[in-house]
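Hi there. Long-time user, first ticket. I'm pasting a complex I've been working with (about 847 residues overall). I'd like to know whether the download I got is complete or cut off, because the file seemed smaller than I expected. Thanks.
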Amino acid sequence: MKDISGLLAGVQRPARYLGREINSVCQDPRQAEVHLALAYPDLYEVGMSHLGLKILYELANNLPGVYAERVFAPAADLEGLLRERGVPLFSLESRTPLHRFDLVGFTLQYELNYTALLMMLDCGRIPLYSSRRERGHPFVLGGGPLAYNPEPLAPFFDLLVIGDGEEALPELLDLYREWKRKGGQAREDFLREAAQLPGIYVPSLYCDNYDGEGRFAGVEALAPEARLPVRRRVLRDLEGAVFPECFVVPYMEIVHDRGVLELFRGCSQGCRFCQAGYVYRPVRERSVAKLRAQAGRIVENTGFSELSLSSLSSSDYPAIGELIGTLEADFFGRHLTLSLPSLRAAASAVRLAGSLHKGRAAGVTIAPEAGTQRLRDVINKKVTEEEILEAAAVALKEWQSHLKLYFMLGLPTETMADLEGMVELVRKISSLGRSGGRKKGPSPLNVSVSVFVPKAHTPFQWEPQLEMGEILKRQDFLRRELRRVKGVSFSWHDPSMSLLEAALARGDRRLAPVLERAYALGSRLDAWGDAFSLSRWEEAFAGEGLSAARYACWAPAYTDPLPWDHIDTGISKDYLIREHQRALKGKITPDCRSGSCAGCGLEECPLPQGAGEGR
Amino acid sequence: MYRYRAVLIKQGEFTFLSHLDLQRTLIRALRRAGLPLAYSQGFNPQPRLSFAAPLALGIESDGEYLEFELTRQEDSEELLAALNRQLPPELAVRSLQETDPRAPFLTSLVEGALYMAVFAGPLTGLAGAVQALQAAAVLEVERKGKNASRRVNIRPFIYNLCLQNTGKEGKLFMFLATGNKGGARPDEVLSLLPPEYNLKQVRRLAVFVRDAAGYQTPLGETLSAFCGCKEH
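Hi, the file is complete. Here it is re-exported in full:
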C-alpha cells in the first residue's frame, strides 16, 4: 500500500483519507475477480454515516471473488493537492486509483452532491460521460433514492440500479464476472445484458425527446434489450437480508458516530411531500429477536457507545417498547445510549425518546411540518395540534430538553393564514415554557424552516416550488414574527439551495451539460453551504439556454409526460393523482398499517389490499 | 476503581490522528475488548480515560502516556495484550502498569516533553544556531488563533536544547514545556533555525512530570535515559 503521508501532511482533517479503520476489509485487490469501488459523493464524515453504504459494503464483500472498497469526496484542499501532484483519487482500503477499478458505484442521496460526483470521476481519471469511456475504464453505476429520477445524471452513468441494492447488485456483479471471464471485450455487450436484468436502467439505450417548444415529450427505448418502464427491485424479506454487524469504526468523529439498527424499511404514513414514503414501500419489519441479536454483535464488534434505532419513523415500529426494554436490559451498566432519530410528534414517542436519554440534556426534534390543521391535512401529516402541544410539553417540561420544531415553507396551497398559524403554534409551545430548569444557554426552542421541494414519484410531483420572491417574502414574515416570541431561535434553509434542489429533483436529461458546466465553473460540495453559489449555477443553466427557476416552478398537467415516467416504483400514477386531488381537497388518507388500504397498487405489499382502485 | 497507566507508540500515518481521535480509538478498543471502563458520575457520564499531553499532528512518538480506570481489576500483562489485539501496530501499547487511583490524573501533572529532531548532513553551523537560541532572552513565533494570529515569546518554554552531532547526522533534543501552564511546540522551535538543514524526522520521546527528584516520566525514567545529554 502506498504511503500517503505527504498528502496527509498537507490537508485539514487528514483522518478522512487514512483508511485502515478497525473492521475495514483489507485484501490484495489483484486477487479479486471483481473490484468494486463504493463511492459516496460527499466528505468521509457524511458518507460514513450512511447506512446504505454499510449494507452494500457488507453485501459485496461477502460475494465470492468480489472486493469492495470505499471512496469519498476529497475536500478542496486534497483535491488541489491531487491535481498539483498528479495523483488520481484513490480508494481508502488499498489506495487504488479510481480508474483502475472494474466498477465504481455511487450512492445518490442528495441533489447538491452531483457536482462532487463529477469531481470524483474527474479526479479519479474516469471520463465524465459514459459515451467517452472505453475498454479498460470502469463501469460507473448509481443507486439510491435519487436514481428514481436519474435523468439529469443519465449521460454520466453506464447503468443505474433502481430499488433495493440487496436484490440487484449480486445479480449485476455475477453478470459482470461472466462478461469478464469471456474476455471483457465490448462494453456494449455487458450493458445490453445488464439492461435485461430487472431493476437495471442503462441510460445509453434510451433517448429523451422534446416537442417544438422544448417541452419534455418522453423517454424512448433504442434497443430491444431496454426495458420500458424499468421496474424497481423490492427486497421482500428484510428479516433474512444481509445486515452489517462489523461496522467500520472511524477514527475521526463522523456525523452519526454510532451503530445502527434498521427496524424497518418503508413507511406507512404516506406524507405527500416525502419521496422516501413512496419509493421505499412496502413496510418491511425486522423482528425484536433479530434486532436484539444484531445489537449485541454490533456493540461487541465496534465498541460504539451509541446505537441508533433507525427507520423512516421509528416510533411506528409496533414493538418499539418491547425492543427498547430488551436492549436496555441487555446493555444494562455498559454505558450504551440508545437513540430514536425520527419521532412522531406524539407525547408517547417523545416520552420514549426522553426515557432513553435518562434526563441528559439531549434535544428532541418533532416535525409538525405545517402550522395549521388545514395544511397538515393537505400534506397528510396526520398529527393534531393537541398532539403536538402534548409532545412539546413532555419534551420541555418532563425532560427539560431543548426542542427543535421542523416546518416547511411553500407547501402546496399555503397562504399567509398558514404561516400565521405556524407563529401561533410556536407561541403556544413557547408559553408551555419550562418548569424551573436552566436559564442559561441557547433558547430551549428552535424553529427550523426549510423550503418545500417537489419530488418525483410523490403526489406533489405536479406541484411547482414557490417562486423565489414569494419565498423570501414569507421567510421575512416568519423571521419578523418569530423574533417577537420569547425564547425562540429561528433557523432556515438557504432558499437558493432549495431552488437548485427542486430544479435537479424534477429535471430531465438536458441538465447533464448544466451539471458539467457548473462543475467547470468550480461548483463542488454544494451541500456544504459555504461553498454554494447560486450565481454560478445560474450561469451554468444560462449556458445551456435553460433556467433553474423554470424547472423548479414547473407545474405539469397530469397528462404531461414526466422525465421519470420510465422508472416504475410499483406505485400507480393513478394513485398518485388521486392522492394529489385529495390533498387539494384537504382530505387525509389513513396510515397503511391502520388496516385501510388506499390502493397504491404495489404488488409486493404484504398488507391486505382493498378499498382503492389499484392500478 | 482500578487505575492503569499505559505507554503507547504513535507511528507512521497514524500520527495524523488527533488527540480526540486517539482518545475515541482507545475507548472503543477497551469496549471491544470487553473491559469494564469506569465512567464519571453525573448527567453526562464520561469514560475515565485520558492522555497525558496532546501531540501535534504528523509527529511520531515513543511515549504517549494514557491513564484509564476499570471497575474490575485486570492483570496488567493480559490487559496490555488485550488492548494490542484491538489496536493497529502503529498504535501499540508498549508498557502498562496499575497505579494509585487516588493520585491526580497525569493531564494535570505533565510539565515537559522531550522531542528529538533528526537532521541529515551537512550540518555546518547548526551547533552555533542552537547555541544562539539557548542564549537568546526572547524568541518570538507567530501563533494562529481562531480569528487572528499573535506573536508569542516561547523562550520561557524551552527548558533545554542539546545537539548530538555525528557529522553525518545530527540529533537535536528539545526539552520543552507542555501542559496547562503553557508550552512550545517542536515545529515552533525548529522554525527558528536557519532553513538550510535537512530535517528528516521529529519524534516525541516521552513526557515528564516533576517532583522533588526532578523531571521524570510517569513510569519513573529520567531524562538521561533518553538522550544522554549532560544537563537539563
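A couple of notes from our side: Residues 165-181 of chain A form the longest helix (17 residues). The two ends of chain A are 55 Å apart (CA to CA).
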